[in-house]
């Protein structure tokens, strides 16, 4: 990958949080942490009110949190380590299927099922990553896409059942239905509010872990890999190993997101693993703001909200595609990045918009 | 047994050359512009749908075969000019993202205009029958597809080997300045290659639209196959794309004989094996320097 | 031999070479970039590799660092064959390269750049390395500060690498290499593009480093080469044309004919 170009384009966007934190490269500065705590407190307090007045919005909120987690897991590997994964649907979907199967066959105990969802996500990521990490840039994206499709096909054709000679395991095209929600120590988490709190707690904990890893020495090496992969190898780091581990960690959180989503919807369908899910995820991430920790959640929120509100207005794909194309061309730093510019210097933001438009006109005239 | 194997071989070759039309465009665009065109499958699908509409409205398969690639080529030109061009010089990953967005958009348009149901392009009158060669009965349309695609591929191959197009391709992706110095307008070359690739994909869409069906999922399906092909063949290598496409066509056809549900899995296994033995593909540059 | 008279030739030959190649060959398709090169580098010396552009100097470096595997031949480092070993483990064994075009992490501070390199030896993927990732941070930070002082960049430690001046960036480049604690440092044109004053500083730094590190240098400035090298290796068309002290090279007919005589530099 042409690291220097990547940087030129993304320097502001990807290292947004670093700018806020001063010369260090801390992800999520202390002021932003305060923001997270405030938002979290607001959500905790208002969730019961939302539950009482309009459960629909609580449902949307839970979905946003789950997809936010998924998008953040992708951000960890793409925004932070510079590896564009087009295969996150595989970890997400298998994590979800693992949860569905365990809940139906073994237990609804979240403390058993969710860790296993994470393990499955890690395992699938390790498999895909093992083939993909020696590639970089475009090649990496294509390989993750292709190898992720392996799992889609395996689930869709119910290969495990064919191999084991039993009737069904994944439910083939139909998927697995009627998946119960979790319980912990005999407490049922079936209702909208308890499930929201479960999701909320786990998503928050996941963010904490990911921020911690990103700020660790390990995270620094990943960041260096994004900036200049070759040189990292030539100062004595096993780059492929770092990439593989980062991808595996990311896959674990994608698996967790799947494990939260499937009981929430009570269905595991092969569509969870389709590459279009990976694509939609990338849309959320880029729309929200690559390399920031709250951008992906914002992106997930906007996409899910729009999908809910506009689905009847026109074919959803047209809207989604158009919004995405515009963002890639005009605002590669996403909503979070643009907001940041706007907040720090409103006048410069207007100037930059003008510049962007005129340089666009310039480039299409050539 | 022999018959079904022979039949599968012919089917595989025919599929292979058509896949090669799609993959060739993808790999040419990459070789020239360093762009992975995610919307390539969507253009193939548009070719199928325009072909279907033209063939059913005008009652002429031949009109569809000629007009659909032209229409898609023009759309390709617009795509290149208004969306891809502003991104040249940025990290190539942006092109994947952009063209993914375009693919989603086109998918939406297809659903809006043609609906979700599956269609079939009527075959031309001359090629509705079948022909028996020895023990094998083979639809004449398949032979037609085989011949047309092979001729087109041969022409492209010849053009790349015997003109400075090939040299230009190798030079331009990595050194636009050098190409500029040769007095060639790079942006025109880029547009040209993109339009040509789009038209090839559309042509394949029409050809296969009369054997496989025309449906809103065909673009997403073929792009994965095309990715597998260019990864196996070596990204940016035309020769590699053709060989790999034939390989994939044959694997698909034989796979359908052995285990129809697992055909797609065979493709990925094949890809994994190739990558393990030759990480940069069969005809990819060996030193990734 | 004016600068390094302390390394006497007899002493060198009596010791085991730190680096030794035998019949080293690298082909790219039909092009033979390095052809049957057999050379020997003694510990605690400065060796230079000179030759016209395209002579195979940089390819030779790339072979030493593991960027390429050789087509044929052996590379022995401290008596062990390292041909075909991956770059990161070659670094761990002690061969480190610095680059002519500054090649590091622009968006990180000078200190972070060095610290990353200094930390590599402490990391790994075995179970016991896992916690080291954290405990070794202080150690690596100490190393990094020490190196920053050595390359005289301690006053800009907290500035991003991209904001440094050209000369400072070249120093940082060398600092990153030093942070890997090399036994053998390969330097690619350490004075390229520098003003006379900066060049003098760079040469001083090179000589200072040579006090405890074996150096191989690719350099075009013949004055510097003749001045600091214990051994000079002349390459042409991928082959090792001659190898010897400055005087021996000056008086070598083949070299005069093939290289010095052509007035390439």
Could you explain how this protein is built, in words?
- Chain A is mostly helical and 366 residues long.
- Chain A has 17 helices and 2 strands.
- Chain A has helices at residues 3-14, 16-20, 30-53, 55-80, 88-105, 110-132, 137-156, 159-164, 192-215, 217-227, 229-234, 239-265, 275-288, 295-310, 316-330, 334-344, 346-365; strands at 183-184, 187-188.
- The longest helix of chain A has 27 residues, at 239-265.
- Chain B has one domain: ABC transporter involved in vitamin B12 uptake, BtuC.
- Chain B has helices at residues 2-33, 40-58, 61-84, 93-114, 140-162, 165-174, 176-181, 186-209, 218-233, 238-258, 263-277; strands spanning 130-133, 136-139.
- In chain B, helix 1 (2-33) packs across helix 6 (165-174) and helix 3 packs antiparallel against helix 8 (186-209).
- Chain C is built from 10 helices and 11 strands.
- Chain C has a 6-stranded mixed sheet, with helices on both faces. In chain C, strands 1, 2, 3, 5 and 6 form a 5-stranded antiparallel sheet that branches.
- In chain C, helix 4 packs across helix 5 (127-150) and helix 4 runs parallel beside helix 6 (166-179).
- Chain C folds into 2 domains: 1-91 and 184-206 and 215-265, Rossmann fold; 95-181, 3-Layer(aba) Sandwich (Rossmann fold), CATH 3.40.50.
């Amino acid at each position: 990958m042409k690291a220097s170009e990547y940087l030129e384009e993304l320097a502001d966007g990807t290292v947004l949080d670093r700018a806020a934190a001063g010369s260090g490269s801390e992800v999520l500065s202390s002021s932003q942490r305060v923001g997270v705590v405030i938002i979290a407190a607001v959500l905790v307090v208002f969730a019961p009110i939302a539950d009482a007045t309009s459960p629909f919005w609580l449902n949307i909120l839970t979905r946003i949190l789950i997809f936010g987690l998924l998008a953040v897991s992708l951000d960890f590997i793409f925004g932070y380590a510079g590896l564009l994964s087009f295969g996150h649907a595989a970890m997400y979907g298998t994590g979800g299927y693992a949860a569905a199967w365990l809940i139906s066959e073994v237990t609804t105990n979240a403390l058993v099922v969710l860790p296993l969802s994470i393990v499955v996500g890690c395992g699938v990521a390790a498999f895909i990553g093992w083939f993909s990490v020696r590639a970089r840039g475009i090649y990496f994206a294509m390989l993750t896409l292709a190898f992720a499709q392996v799992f889609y096909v395996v689930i869709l054709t119910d290969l495990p059942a064919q191999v084991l000679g039993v009737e069904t395991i994944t439910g083939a095209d139909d998927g697995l239905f009627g998946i119960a929600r979790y319980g912990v120590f005999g407490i049922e988490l079936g209702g909208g509010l308890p499930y929201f709190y479960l999701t909320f707690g786990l998503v928050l904990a996941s963010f904490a872990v990911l921020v911690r890893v990103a700020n660790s020495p390990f995270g620094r090496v990943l960041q260096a890999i994004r900036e200049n992969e070759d040189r990292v190898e030539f100062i004595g780091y096993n780059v492929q190993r770092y990439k593989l581990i980062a991808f595996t960690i990311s896959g674990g959180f994608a698996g967790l997101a799947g494990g939260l989503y499937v009981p929430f919807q009570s269905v595991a369908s092969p569509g969870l693993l389709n590459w279009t899910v990976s694509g939609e995820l990338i849309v959320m991430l880029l729309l929200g703001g690559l390399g920031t920790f709250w951008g992906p959640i914002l992106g997930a929120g906007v996409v899910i909200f729009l999908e809910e509100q506009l689905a009847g207005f026109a074919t959803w794909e047209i809207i989604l595609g158009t919004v995405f194309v515009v963002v890639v061309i005009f605002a590669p730093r996403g909503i979070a990045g643009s907001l940041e510019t706007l907040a720090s210097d409103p006048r410069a933001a207007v100037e930059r918009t003008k510049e962007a438009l005129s340089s666009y006109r310039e480039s299409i005239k050539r | 047994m022999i018959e079904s194997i022979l039949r599968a071989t012919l089917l595989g070759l025919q599929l292979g050359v058509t896949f090669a039309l799609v993959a060739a465009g993808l790999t040419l665009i990459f070789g020239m512009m360093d762009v992975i065109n995610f919307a390539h499958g969507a253009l193939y699908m548009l070719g199928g749908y325009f072909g279907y509409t033209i063939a059913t409205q005008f009652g002429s398969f031949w009109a569809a075969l000629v007009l659909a690639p032209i229409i898609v080529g023009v759309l390709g030109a617009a795509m290149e000019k208004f969306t891809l061009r502003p991104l040249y010089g940025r990290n190539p990953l942006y092109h994947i993202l952009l063209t993914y967005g375009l693919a989603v958009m086109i998918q939406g348009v297809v659903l809006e205009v043609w609906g979700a149901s599956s269609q079939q392009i009527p075959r031309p009158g001359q090629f509705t029958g079948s022909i028996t060669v020895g023990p094998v009965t083979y639809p004449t349309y398949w032979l037609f597809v085989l011949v047309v695609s092979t001729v087109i591929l041969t022409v492209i191959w010849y053009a790349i080997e015997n003109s400075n197009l090939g040299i230009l391709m190798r030079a331009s992706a990595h050194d636009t300045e050098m190409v500029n110095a040769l007095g060639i307008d790079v942006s025109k070359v880029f547009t040209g290659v993109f339009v040509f690739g789009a038209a090839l994909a559309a042509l394949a869409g029409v050809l296969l639209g009369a054997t496989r069906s025309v449906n809103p999922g065909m673009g997403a399906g073929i792009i994965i196959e095309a990715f597998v092909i260019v990864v196996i063949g070596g990204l940016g290598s035309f020769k590699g794309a053709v060989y790999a496409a034939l390989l994939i066509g044959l694997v698909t056809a034989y796979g359908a004989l052995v285990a129809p549900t697992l055909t797609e899995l065979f493709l990925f296994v094949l890809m994994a094996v190739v990558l393990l033995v030759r990480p940069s593909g069969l005809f990819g540059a060996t030193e990734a320097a | 031999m004016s600068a390094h008279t302390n390394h006497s030739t007899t002493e060198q030959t009596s010791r085991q070479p730190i680096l030794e190649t035998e019949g080293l060959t690298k082909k790219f398709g039909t092009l033979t970039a390095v052809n049957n090169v057999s050379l020997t580098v003694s510990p605690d010396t400065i060796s230079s590799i000179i030759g016209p552009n395209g002579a195979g100097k940089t390819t030779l470096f790339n072979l030493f660092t593991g960027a390429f595997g050789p087509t044929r031949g052996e590379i022995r480092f401290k008596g062990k064959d390292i041909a075909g070993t991956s770059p990161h483990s070659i670094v761990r064994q002690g061969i480190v390269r610095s680059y002519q075009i500054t090649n590091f992490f622009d968006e990180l501070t000078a200190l972070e750049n060095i610290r990353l390199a200094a930390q590599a030896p402490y990391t790994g993927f075995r179970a016991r390395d896992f916690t080291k990732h954290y405990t070794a941070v202080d150690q690596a930070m100490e190393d990094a500060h020490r190196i920053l002082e050595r390359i005289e960049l301690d006053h800009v430690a907290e500035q991003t690498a991209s904001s440094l001046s050209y000369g400072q960036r070249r120093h940082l480049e060398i600092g990153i290499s030093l942070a890997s604690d090399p036994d053998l440092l390969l330097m690619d044109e350490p004075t390229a593009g520098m003003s006379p004053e900066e060049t003098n500083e760079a040469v001083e730094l090179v000589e200072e480093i040579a006090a405890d590190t074996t150096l191989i240098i690719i350099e075009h400035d013949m004055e510097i080469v003749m001045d600091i090298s214990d051994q000079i290796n002349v390459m042409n068309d991928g082959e090792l044309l001659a190898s010897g002290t400055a005087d021996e090279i000056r008086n070598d007919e083949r070299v005069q004919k093939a290289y010095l005589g052509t007035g390439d530099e």
